TrEMBL record:
Gene Ontology CC: one annotated term: nucleus
Low complexity bias: start-end ranges: 7-28, 174-218
Keywords, alphabetical: Developmental protein, DNA-binding, Nucleus, Transcription, Transcription regulation
Alphabetical list of InterPro entries matching this protein: ALOG (IPR040222), ALOG_dom (IPR006936)
Gene Ontology MF: a single term: DNA binding
Keyword Hydrolase (UniProt): no
GO biological process: mRNA transcription; response to light stimulus
Subcellular location: Nucleus
Name of the molecule in the record: ALOG domain-containing protein
Organism: Colocasia esculenta
Annotated segments matching region Disordered: 1-41, 155-225
Protein family (similarity comment): Belongs to the plant homeotic and developmental regulators ALOG protein family.
Amino acid sequence: MEDNPDASASGSGSGEPPSSSSLALAPSDHPPQQPLSRYESQKRRDWNTFLQYLRNHKPPLALARCSGAHVIEFLKYLDQFGKTKVHAAACPFFGHPNPPASCACPLKQAWGSLDALIGRLRAAYEENGGRPENNPFGARAVRIYLREVREGQAKARGIPYEKKRRRRLPPQPAVSGAASSSSPAPAGPVDAAAGAVGSAGTTAPAASDTGAAEASSAPRGSATS
């Protein structure tokens, strides 16, 4: 009887098909990357949008030659995608926070969206090799423009911008080593007077004048609010 060549291939030996364990993939040398946070994802999209804007600029503009004026031009370009109604000075609803009817005033980017956008682009510029002293998103002209947008939109929409005040906590009395003694020494005339002045000075805590702006970086909402 002739030998069946297929039988030898299917039997034990070198011709045996590999087991399922040998088909397992080797572990990767690099661990899987963690998904980006919402802020990081938005920052990457904003950065790619700005680079695309520079490529479409006429003439095309290199990132190294970008200045604060070009950043302001980019912010004005984004107004066409805005969703915030900003009433013109001649509009009857100018300064009205809740207009009773619609009007033909244009839609623009909200100040908060622009402020958060600049914060994200400022961080992305330096993360991509830009020098902090040459960062066009931190230029003084950009800060002035954002302040003008904030004030203009506050007047047009009737929404005043108010600084958030933080009340300073009253100073805590110092705990001396003599306070732990069971029989403290009586206070002298000078100490008693000083204690009276100190207690009177802590009755009315002073309010801080420092305020916090809305923003960046965002970061806040996306570039197209």
